[in-house]
């Protein structure tokens, strides 16, 4: 046992048998046994964020790994195999080394490790967050001995001083309060990872279809938003469970963090305290993180073969909720416009997305991937698609799945192989541009005939697609789907009523370049070659706020007529920028904007040049800080009241995928 310390809680150091008895009586999910296993990892943690002190005890079978590290400030105090005391040494590089197992029988004998000490502050370890207003101990960060080279059941007990609450990996089994401590017991049926978060939280909870939903917010946030988050989570959980089956945890906690994060872990999510009050978060970020309980924190991701979880989560949370709000068409059009802003140098294959936070990677991993799942659902139908989801969850829950596992699940559900279709979209970067050409029309005794050729263009064309074609006739619309596997595909349609128009993919159901698109701010944000011209050098730092990164600063003059030049952001006061524009003619915007409001941003139509100006430096600064939320816009105006008074996109050219007919076309 550890030397006695003032902050030790006698309750924490309950015997392993006591915790196992809790687990014996707790029903587990996804077919896990309800009896404790000898192949289980049992972890006891006592943590005081005020002093950053931590004591721990780990009991588990000794795996092939016998070498581990502990953070500076933590010391291993004892090691046992069964009742045998083990000699432990510390390498010159700071790693701890257990003695080599020579007797095969020792492989099945659990070891017990105990350690204690003071955790480093955040300045020396950026992965850790240790503070009284909120802490996060992430997995495999050196605060516990990581001896797990494979997943196994985890029984986890966390004790913190009263005034703090804790949430951790897995399902909450039981929680207790003593005179001095809060103690919580968690269980996960199959995991390598261990995460713990703590904070000075208020607890709200609600039972929903066998799941305990919890909010863990500081008092002010709890009073203002706790019930709102519970209500939204209740509705979202009911919808998600009806579609996917049971949540893979008996509890789900929504906890606040002082850090500006939004992270999903098995059984809980951490949301930044500054974003929790934003009115759209309960209906956007919250359902996304809840859906991760199935994909990413439930079915684990084989990152070496690509991160599929963000795409599937985006489609089943963000997009599914847009469908309920009858806003799905607009979301698909918006996604395609965002993807069209990607420069060729930023395009990667979907299977190469690992989860990096850069904006270009997120567009591929989230929106591009979600559109692929949308095309798959259109291809195999709603019932087969949802059956594939349930099969994936049932077969792979708490295991690590790769893209081939998803292909197998949807192939089984649809009754035919989806290998060729999905592999093409996973391995080829970019998206095709569609064209319709060689349209011919004819009237005959039985009705009308339209024929033509669909064409795919793009560096990696052709992609396998099923092209929606809608013909509006005098008697209403006629919908057909044309399979396409080559760069050119002829089609022929026979109709009984006279056609008025034909349009290819009018609802943006296909993962494709949308054709002519207006210039938008995101083009500057995504292109790593974007340059900045600050007409007043004191305004140059604002470029980082707009672009999200540093950019090359230019000096005048600039040749704005050279279309080969990189994208350009020009920043200045209203007077200075208007003067600059007189000497650098640019296409006029469709509406007067150069002097609108107190500050304004706009893209010069048909160019990759963005203009940011304001009546004074303060107005420009305020607008620059908000522009990261307006990447899809061609213009944004900030009014006198410091609110966004105007925002929108310049009109796009007419779609080349729409053909209009007159009566004379069928003579």
From TrEMBL:
**Pfam families referenced in this protein's UniProt entry, alphabetically:** Peptidase_M1
Q: Where is the Peptidase M1 membrane alanine aminopeptidase domain?
A: 288-425
Q: What span is annotated as the signal peptide, if there is one?
A: none
Highest taxon of the source? Bacteria
Which named protein is this?
Peptidase M1 membrane alanine aminopeptidase domain-containing protein
Record the organism: Halomonas qaidamensis
């Amino acid at each position: 046992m550890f030397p006695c310390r003032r902050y030790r809680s006698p309750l924490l150091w309950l015997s392993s048998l006591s915790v196992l008895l809790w687990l014996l009586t707790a029903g587990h999910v996804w077919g896990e046994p309800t009896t404790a296993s000898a192949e289980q990892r049992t972890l006891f943690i006592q943590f005081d964020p005020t002093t950053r002190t931590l004591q721990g005890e780990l009991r588990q079978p000794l795996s092939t790994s016998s070498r581990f590290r502990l953070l500076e400030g933590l010391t291993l105090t004892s090691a046992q195999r069964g009742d045998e005391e083990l000699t432990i040494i510390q390498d010159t590089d700071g790693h701890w080394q257990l003695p080599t197992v020579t007797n095969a029988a020792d492989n099945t004998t659990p070891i017990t490790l105990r350690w204690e000490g003071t955790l480093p502050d955040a300045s020396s370890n950026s992965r850790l967050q240790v503070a009284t207003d909120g802490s996060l101990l992430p997995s495999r960060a050196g605060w516990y001995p990581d001896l797990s080279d494979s997943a196994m059941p985890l029984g986890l007990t966390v004790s913190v001083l009263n005034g703090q609450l804790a949430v951790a990996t897995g399902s909450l089994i039981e929680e207790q309060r003593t005179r001095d401590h809060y103690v919580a017991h968690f269980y996960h049926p199959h995991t390598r990872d261990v995460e713990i978060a703590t904070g000075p939280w208020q607890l709200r909870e609600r039972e929903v279809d066998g799941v305990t939903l919890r909010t863990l917010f500081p008092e002010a946030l709890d009073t203002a938003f706790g019930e709102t988050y519970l209500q939204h989570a209740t509705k979202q959980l009911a919808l998600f469970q009806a579609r996917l089956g049971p949540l893979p945890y008996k509890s789900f906690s929504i906890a606040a963090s002082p850090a500006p994060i939004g992270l999903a872990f098995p059984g809980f999510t951490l949301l930044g305290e500054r974003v929790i009050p934003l009115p759209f978060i309960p209906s956007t970020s919250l359902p996304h993180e809840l859906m991760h309980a199935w994909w990413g924190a439930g079915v684990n991701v084989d990152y070496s073969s690509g991160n599929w979880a963000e795409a599937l989560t985006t489609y089943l949370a963000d997009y599914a909720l847009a469908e309920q709000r009858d806003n799905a068409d607009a979301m698909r059009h918006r996604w395609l416009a965002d993807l069209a802003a990607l420069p060729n140098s930023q395009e990667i294959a979907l299977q190469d997305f690992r989860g990096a936070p850069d904006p270009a990677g997120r567009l591929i991993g989230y929106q591009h991937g979600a559109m692929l799942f949308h095309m798959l659902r259109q291809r195999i139908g709603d019932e087969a698609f949802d059956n594939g989801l349930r099969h994936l969850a049932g077969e792979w829950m708490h295991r690590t799945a790769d893209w081939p596992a998803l292909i197998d699940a949807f192939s089984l559900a649809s009754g035919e192989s989806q290998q060729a279709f999905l592999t093409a979209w996973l391995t080829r970067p970019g998206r095709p541009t569609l064209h319709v050409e060689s349209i011919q029309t004819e009237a005959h005794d039985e009705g009308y005939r339209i024929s033509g050729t669909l064409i795919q263009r793009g560096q990696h064309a052709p992609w396998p697609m099923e092209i929606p074609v809608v013909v509006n006739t005098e008697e209403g619309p006629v919908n057909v789907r044309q399979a396409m596997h080559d760069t050119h595909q002829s089609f022929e349609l026979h109709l009984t009523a006279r056609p008025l128009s034909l349009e290819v993919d009018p609802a943006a159901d296909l993962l494709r370049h949308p054709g002519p698109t207006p210039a938008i701010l995101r083009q500057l944000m995504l292109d790593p070659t974007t340059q900045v011209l600050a007409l007043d050098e004191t305004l140059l730092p604002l470029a980082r706020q707009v672009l999200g990164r540093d950019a090359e600063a230019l000096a005048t003059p600039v040749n704005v007529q050279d279309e080969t030049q990189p994208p350009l952001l020009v920043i200045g006061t209203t007077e200075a920028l208007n003067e600059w524009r007189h000497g650098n003619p640019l296409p006029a915007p469709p509406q007067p904007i150069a002097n609108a409001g107190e500050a304004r941003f706009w893209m010069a139509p048909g160019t990759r040049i963005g203009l940011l100006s304001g009546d004074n430096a303060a107005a420009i600064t305020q607008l620059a800080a908000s522009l990261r939320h307006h990447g899809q816009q061609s213009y944004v105006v900030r009014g006198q009241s410091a609110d966004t008074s105007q925002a929108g996109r310049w009109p796009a050219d007419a779609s080349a995928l729409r053909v209009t007919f007159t009566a004379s076309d069928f003579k």
